[in-house]
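Re: the multi-chain job from yesterday

Posting the exact lines I submitted so nobody has to dig through the queue logs.
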Amino acid sequence: MATRIRTTRVTLANLSPAQGSQHNPKRVGRGQGSGYGGTAGRGANGQKSRSGAGIKPGFEGGQTPITKLFPKRGFINQNARTWAPVNLDRIQYWIEQGRLTSSPENPITARELLMSGCIHDVHDGIKILGDGAEHFKDPIYVIASRASKSAIDAIESKGGKVVCQFYNPLALRDCVKGRTDRVAAAPTRREDITWYTNYRNRGYISPATLKSLGDLPFVEERWKLLATQLGAWKKQEFDVQKK
Amino acid sequence: MLSRAIGSTSRLALTPAVAYPCSARLSTATVASKLRSSIHHPPPPKQATPIQTPLFLSLTEPFKRGKGDPPPDGNVVVLDPTVFNEPVRRDILHLCTVHYLDSLRQGSANTKTRGEVRGSGIKIRPQKGSGRARLGDGQSPMLVGGGIAFGPKPRDFSTKLPRKVIQMGMRVALSVKMKENLLGVMSSLLWPCGRTKHLVHRIEALGLRKTLFITGEETPHVGLDRAIRNIPSVHLMAADKVNVYHILKHQRLVLDIKAVEYFERTLKKDTPLVPLSKLASI
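And the result, structure tokens for all chains:
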């Protein structure tokens, strides 16, 4: 018979843990029969057999440790950004499988790429790259942090639209989580402002980009305001002192 | 499901003498059609889950019938199978019991170390010359009257157990009592007269020795609470204070209707159940 049906009642007296779920801990120094009696697994004499014998981790007995053998080099750029790359052939494959859709009302953003599994981690933002552009067919609407020139050319040749938007860590988190209550911050650093006001990069606060997008649903009013405010540097000049 | 659509107060399916529910209250066509249109059909689940049938349990005679209470003859309580028909898992019950008993431990055992034993730090005898072993102060653990090395210190023995394991333990414990026919439901737990002696006679008459009575009220009925206090092997508890340990410790379990509702509200799972109206045709 396959199972034995218990007829005894379940009481406090006949409870037991699942077989193999609990293991007795090792107790050293409790007699020869345990296998860990006598020296309790420490061997005979020597520094390591003494109580409190903590040798500093990484110490190699006086020999120059491996952490000190080689010279330090360089510095770590705190302002560096790691972009999560995604190529056009991957996006095309995802669209063909039906895992990714794009329309002017719902463009492809970091959120869609992450949820569909096209990207596994957004890092500091998404960069659209142009590898496999020969397989790319459909017009798509993408808002990414960055896009390479070949990717921009490939997308626009098929009738799609690319916009590069500035995402600080909070704005990226809100985009990925789908939160719309907060306003995404504008770029403050000079490098970011000059990059995103440039039409060559399809920056979102470049007047030429906004003109080419026209009145697509995903274009926000705020971008136009920021374009005028943050693009003012293009028309400004230093006062020339008249001698 | 249908009984839920009416309202949670309809714990009882009123039936004629046959202890088999036919939806007598719902026999009118207009009521049935209204209910049919208002029933919300949830989307099909992504994982195949078995569709369970509810359990039926006849009411036990209450201690004292209250005014609005339905008669126990010919009335049946409908119980949720996800709470009262879980498969038996002794290992889960073991985990929950051990967790509860750990939490009860006082953990007040204490010993003095060589630093805490009263005594001076003077060296007991010179290092060399006495022919005996070398010794420092008189509180060393090697010496009689010295401190204890690695002795117990007051500590917290409580352990953590995932909330869902504790909930599963409650479901398994209630199901175990149900399976062993040691679960009863009374319409209400009252004892207005408050005499322990008469309550003892009533308990003997009902055959409810070694029982745990669980009431769903926030505070149990005062008269019953006071009368039951001095009766050995019989206890009364509020449903939110009950543990797996208490359920297993007592042989029998008698619940209030409100206690049944409390357990079902807090412990039930969202699996599909066969609605009551369909059962009559099975």
